C-alpha cells in the first residue's frame, strides 16, 4: 500500500490564484502550457475526475472491476486506445491537460511529470473516474460544513475490512473517505449524495468505524486526520483511491494517473450527474 | 441485420407446462437435462437475462459498448474467461443451463444446440444482460395490459434512427421494443419502468414513431406486429436486441447467445433491480 501516494496536506481548500478560469477549456489550456496547481475550487459547477490509464492488456479487467464496484469506481468516461480527447474535454488532450501526472511502473511510483505525451503508449486506455468534489459542492451549497475543507487539510481516507468484488487481476479492500457531521445533518447529507451515484453516491457506512475495520480515525491510511467535534458522527463514502490501490497492487507494467488533488477538469456540468 | 433472428411468434405468453418449477435452480436443472422451451412466465419474481458470450479479444470493446449504452445493454453480470458459474446461477453452468443456444460464426447463425459445453472456448466471456420481462411483470402487477401478451405474440421491435455510442468495433442503431398504451396509463408506465434502470429503464420515446425513424409500426424489424387500439400511444423502450445486432454486425469469429425467448433464469429477485 505504500505505493499509493498520500495526498499532500493543504492542497485542497485554495482559491484560484490570479482569479478564476473562464471555462474548463481555459483551465486545461493553462495546464497544457505548464501550470501546475491543485484543482480544488477551480471551474465551479464543472465535473473534475480522476485519471487512471493502463495498457490495453489490463483494460478489460479494470473496466469489469469498475462494473462490479460502481460506488468506489464510477466511470465518467473511457478513452480507448489511440484516443487522446473526447467530448468530455473538447479540443483537449488527455496526455497534457492534467496539471501533473504520476507514472507507475510495476506498481511503484517511477516519475512525476507535467505532461505524459512521450510516455503515452499507443495502446493506453484512459479511465475517467468520478470524484467527490462534485458531491462536496452539493453539500456545501446545502449549508453542510465539510470538516477537512474548514480545517484546511485533505480528506481523511481509510482502508476498510469491506472487500471489493474482484475482477481478473484486480481486487482489494474498499477505501473510504470520512466526513464528520452533526447528527442533525446526516440524513440530509445522505439524501444529497444519493442523488450523485456517478460520483460515489450515498455513504457506505455511518457511525462506528470498528464495524468496517477502522481502528483509529486519527490515523488515516491516506490524506489527513480531521478534528471531530463533540456530537459529530463519522460518515463514510466509497473513495476513488480504491481502484488506484487495486490497480497498483496488481503491479501493471505501466500506469499513468493524475497527481493527487490535481484532477482533470471536464466540460461536463456537475448537474449532469444528478438523478431525481 | 438478417442474421439477427426473429423471435418466433407465440412463444411468449405461455404458462409452465406441467406446473411451475420450485426454484430457478430447478428450472436450470431441467434445462441442463435437456428440456427446451420458452422461459416467459417461469419462476415469477426471478430475473431472466439475455446471454451473449464472445472470445476475450472482443470482451473489452463489448463491455465498453455496454458502459456507453446502458439503456439497451444493462449488464446484470459478467462471467470472466474460465468462469462457468456465478452467484447469479448458484450451482449452475452457463454452458448448459439455458434451454437452447444459438451459435454464430463470423456474424452468421451457424448452429442451434441445447448445450454449448463443447463449443465453449476457455477464453469465452459471458455477458448477462437485463431483459424486459422484469419490467413487464411490474407493469402487469400495476394493472397495465401489455398488448403483445394479450394478443399472444412476441413484442414488436424496430431499428431506429437513434445511433448508439460506438465502442471499438461495435456500433449501430438503437433497437427499441414497442408497447401501445392508453394515454391515461403512459405516465404510470414511465414511472414504473423508471424504477428498473437495470432492465432498460424508462422509455426512450413516446408517440410519433417517425421521429425516431420508424416508418411503419405494422412492419417491425424483429418480433411481431401488434394491433394498436384506438386512442393508444406507442411507447418505445431500449431493447436488448441492440447489443446482439451490434455484436453480429461486427462479425466476431464466434458468439454464443440464448435462443430467442429462451432466457437464462437467474437466482436474482426482480426486486433487487428496483430503485426508489
UniProtKB/TrEMBL annotation, chains A, B:
Keyword Heme: no
EC number(s) from the headed UniProt entry: 4.2.1.-
Keywords recorded for this protein, A-Z: Lyase
Pfam families in the cross-refs: D-Glu_cyclase
Record bears the keyword Lyase: yes
Gene3D superfamilies: PSTPO5379-like, PSTPO5379-like domain
Broadest EC class assigned to this enzyme: lyase
Family of the protein in this entry: Belongs to the D-glutamate cyclase family.
Name of protein: Putative hydro-lyase H9634_09100
Organism: Brevibacterium gallinarum
Amino acid at each position: 500500500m505504500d505505493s499509493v501516494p498520500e495526498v499532500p496536506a493543504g492542497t485542497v481548500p485554495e482559491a484560484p490564484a490570479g482569479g478564476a478560469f473562464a471555462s474548463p477549456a481555459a483551465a486545461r489550456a493553462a495546464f497544457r502550457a505548464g501550470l501546475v496547481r491543485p484543482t480544488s475550487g477551480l471551474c465551479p459547477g464543472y465535473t473534475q475526475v480522476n485519471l487512471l490509464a493502463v495498457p490495453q492488456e489490463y483494460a478489460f479487467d479494470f473496466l469489469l472491476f469498475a462494473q462490479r464496484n460502481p460506488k468506489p469506481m464510477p466511470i465518467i468516461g473511457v478513452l480507448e486506445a489511440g484516443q487522446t480527447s473526447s467530448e468530455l474535454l473538447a479540443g483537449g488532450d488527455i496526455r497534457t491537460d492534467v496539471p501533473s501526472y504520476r507514472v507507475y511502473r510495476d506498481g511503484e511510483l517511477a516519475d512525476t511529470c507535467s505532461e505524459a505525451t512521450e510516455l503515452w503508449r499507443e495502446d493506453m486506455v484512459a479511465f475517467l473516474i468520478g470524484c467527490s468534489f462534485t458531491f462536496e459542492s452539493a453539500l456545501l451549497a446545502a449549508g453542510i460544513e465539510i470538516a477537512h475543507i474548514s480545517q484546511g487539510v485533505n480528506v481523511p481516507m481509510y482502508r476498510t475490512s469491506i472487500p471489493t468484488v474482484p475482477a481478473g487481476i484486480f481486487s482489494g479492500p474498499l477505501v473510504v473517505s470520512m466526513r464528520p457531521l452533526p447528527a442533525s445533518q446526516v440524513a440530509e447529507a445522505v439524501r444529497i449524495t444519493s442523488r450523485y451515484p456517478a460520483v460515489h453516491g450515498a455513504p457506505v457506512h455511518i457511525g462506528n468505524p470498528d464495524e468496517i475495520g477502522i481502528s483509529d480515525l486519527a490515523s488515516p491510511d491516506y490524506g489527513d486526520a480531521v478534528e471531530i467535534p463533540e456530537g459529530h458522527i463519522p460518515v463514510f463514502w466509497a473513495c476513488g483511491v480504491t481502484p488506484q490501490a487495486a490497480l497498483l497492487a496488481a503491479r501493471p507494467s505501466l500506469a499513468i494517473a493524475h497527481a493527487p488533488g490535481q484532477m482533470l477538469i471536464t466540460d461536463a456540468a456537475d448537474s449532469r450527474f444528478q438523478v431525481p
